[in-house]
Amino acid sequence: MEPSPKPRFQFSLRQAILGMLFCATLLYALLGRETWRLRTTVPGLIFNAQTALTLDDSKILTRQKSSICVFDTGSGAQLLSIQTDPSAEAISLDGRFVAVGTNSGTIELWNVASGTKTFQWDAHKGAMESVSFSGDARYLISSSTDLVARVWDVETGKVTSELKGHTGLIERAYLNSDGSYALTESDHGWGRSIDPADQSKILWGDKTARIWDTHTQQELKRGTRWFEETPKATIIHEALTPEDYKPYETVQMSTRDGRMEIIRPSYGSPWCIYDRDAHTEGFEFKSCVGRFASAFFGHNEDIIVTSPLESRVTETSIWQNVNSSKYSRLIYRWMMRLLGVSALFVVIRRLQKWRKARRIRSVGP
Fold first, then answer.
1. Angle subtended at Cα 280 by Cα 278 and Cα 281, rounded to the nearest 5 degrees
2. Which residues in 188-241 belong to E strands, given as ranges?
3. Strand, coil or helix: what is 327?
4. Rounded-to-integer distance, Cα 207 and Cα 186, Å
5. Residue 282, class by beta-carbon neighbours within 10 Å (0-12 exposed, 13-18 middle, 19+ buried)?
6. Taking the model in full, what pTM does it have?
7. What's the pLDDT tens digit per position in 28-80?
């Protein structure tokens, strides 16, 4: 009787696992890494990333010396230009309104679609530091060198809350989705000259971040917040947890799943993408250099905005994620899980064989 022919291809479990590991690594190397291309550039710079983009990432707000402009992030077309003396600006998340705070302490409210000024009112005694809309665009919060944050009704232009308690410059102020809570930040590392005649008179922050109830005008929670300078980077210390910031629509320097992060490897080097899956530095934004440069993901994480504040470049760049390998990354992760299960299976089989051989040796012939 003739022996049955052997299969043409016969793989051991070890060879199968090694093959899966090779395929997973090759798939990730070819398709799994992020690729970014420059979509468009727009004139002007971004001084507050949290108030520069609409929720759908379709419009962006930039500042030039004496003007505020709104651009379409897809085509780069200019949608609105405001000639003013700006010191703070914000666009509502729905893209309907733009608020401009001036150095004289006034707030201007503009309609983006019609290009007309809706309101203008005297808001503070000092130069404006921050303006920001609530998520529903019904309320606006502002801060200034007068150490007070005020909440305004967008339809009437009347103040609804005054948040007092900071002993230093309120650098940033934000509202949650319906304007019922506010977040104010007063960094020690940020100061402003309060006397044009004497530049040595500088108002510094009080190292705190605070959460407020805008209806009762009472402080609910306080955390420390300050800058620490190191040779390679600037570290922000804050006692408020990420959960405290969760109710506020914010843009970040990392994706929500933590897989990608925008970092600066060393002082003076360009910002780049850090891939936590591969533990490697990836795409470099060579035009984005400097400690105060602004680089962040859009709300939908499909775009990255870079704005170099310490260079001669006076343009903001919008980068598009052109990597269509979302499914390849998913396959890669499942292959790695399967690889782990298979490796565990091999270890168990080896352990069983070892115990069996030991039992046979102990029994003897």
1. 140
2. 191-193, 202-204, 208-213, 218-229, 234-238
3. helix
4. 6
5. middle
6. 0.75
7. 555 555 578 889 999 999 988 889 999 999 999 999 888 999 999 999 999 99
